[in-house]
Amino acid sequence: MHFAYSSLSSGKPETLPEGFENIVEFSYGNITQFQRMSSYISEHNIAYAFCFDLQVNSPACKLMRAAGVETIFSYWGSTISGLNRGVKLLMKRIEVFLRSSKPNHFIFESEAMQHYAVNGRGINHKNTSVIATGIDTDKYSPLNSSEFYLQTEFGIPEGSFVLFYSGHMEKRKGVQIIIDAMRVLVDDLGLNDVYCLITGNREGEELPFIEQLQGSGAIDRVVFGGYRKDLDSIMPECDVGVIASIGWDSFPMSSLEMASCGLPLVVSRLQGLVETIVDGETGYLFEPGDSFELAGKVEKIYKSELLQKSLGSSGRARIVKNYSTEIQLQKLQSCLEKIVKA
Fold first, then answer.
1. Residues contacting 178, CB < 8 A, separation 6+
2. What is the pLDDT of residues 3-18, one digit of tens each?
3. Same domain, yes or no: 126 and 87
């Protein structure tokens, strides 16, 4: 087994075992590295390549084929295309069919991503699989709850009802919708013990959202925690996980982690996000961009501790049953073996 990285300028990755030396530097778009990579493949008789986000028309496919690679897998963690139809989709399908050096199989993290690959990029459905991301369900567990952790780390009063979000701050992720929902919860509904903890912001990225909170009673109830390495301790102390994306979103790992910690989820009715919950059983969907509906779903959970526990425990059970790291690895192994033997 060999690992290739686009850059090794920072040294060998810490995730590899001590003493592991089968490492090479290679980037799909770096033509100057192609000859070196081709020699490396031939020298080590590499027959199978597992690549990340490798497109149908990537020159890397042609290189690997010529060097002796028999089977190429392309694992996608993002969307591969927009949707197409009619003549344009037909042309995409013809292009994929005629390209001899394309990956043999594409693996996606959600059914939505697979749908876009088939009905946008023109990839044959039989050459695709869906294998959702898995997480450590022991690490992300309600049992990791630490009394007063939110109070100690963020100054959130004991007994508060806490919304939680973790992720990027770009507009597509809908943090501004969460901020508007907090204004509704505090200013319009008078829920003064509701707080919102947002993590993942880089220095200064919180400023537009603080400006958005000016004049609202929620300004002192939204906390920006920045990048954290203790999310497994933070999330079990929160009450609801929120993902309010307004643009493309798939099956974010944060949704698995929150649900595994026993949090009911309230997420946008978008692409892969609808796959992160069972609506009404482990959480609720709301229309993208509708901060009032988001606030209403949160209020419903806020008003019923029994409902909160029921949604949370069902969500946790769903993650343990379907989305653990062990299950992901089992499905991945089964998929690779099936394609290689075919």
1. 163, 165, 196, 198, 242, 244, 291, 294
2. 999 888 888 888 899 8
3. yes
